[in-house]
């Protein structure tokens, strides 16, 4: 009986893959990638030798692999491209953010970092014109009670007067605006401490981890964990004047200050635009364990990790660079998003250094979706290296190389790129593998959440 969710060609290919003699090995490869939706294909060989004796300890070639290829995870952070690799990226981001909140002995971040002033702040974009929304009153300005999933939410009430050009230019300069905000925040902290900025560097350090999120209207905003440390970072206690109240007041002042403005010059028929943050500013203290009034470390880390794998998909835009505007018709891009993309096309020759058309699929935004200050916590690179070291140790044990120290082992290898992706049937099978792995991970995560809740209950006792 055929699967009603699969078309006949995909089903035929699926049966071909599942019935092949080397299916088990193909399944093993895809399991190792985490069910990657677009794996990298390599061909080549590797030989492991003992440097002293010249003895060959291990030999491997892709000649015996399914299709003569080794498949590796693509590593794409975007959930729209590869849910499996995005899950791994989100997990790394979660650990990175939480380590900067709760500490991590493996990363030399002490648990005393919990005692540092830290808040979770959301900085939003200004208005570019009224949009359909769900206000507290329940009734939009258009007179409608919009359901939560109404596609009209975030779209302009009057497209003829909405500032689409301003919206994409703001997105394009949002990273510059954050940089000015961070600089001004250091000045505000120094002012409240009654010291100079040079003295601030000698007594305290501002640390942060942030993530960008697209609102439904297509405007970018930032969620940020902001913390005050001592001058050497998280292992160093902050000065006595550094409190959560001082940090909160300084953030509000930095957002409101005239210095925190990015001015885009006039060009042809486009006016000069001074951009500042929007009026909506949310700042919440972060608590180790929740009491219902403040946001918790785990909630913050989960929230940041969630948006680290997203781009502008919730606006209906494409997840790849746009070659021609005709692509918007083929992909049925919504009218509001289309107008933002068309604004990028119109503005691109006016501001060539901003590369607006190259980033039109991101509605002009060209910054990093997640970033952190240098001493906030560990790095994604360190987390990836830890994972690689763990896998290397597993491989050494499997190959019975534990008796050989790394200094006495020589590895020779030759690898060639041979393509990427799946056939239709492979894609369906890989998605099933990914779902099974996700179920196992969700079960483990629930167990961890229960453990943390129990620790929190003991803490309050």
From TrEMBL:
Q: Which domain of life is it from?
A: Bacteria
Q: Which InterPro entries match?
A: RepSA, RepSA_streptomyces
Pfam families (UniProt xref) = RepSA (PF20199)
State the NCBIfam families in the record.
rep_init_RepSA
- What is this protein identified as? Replication initiation protein
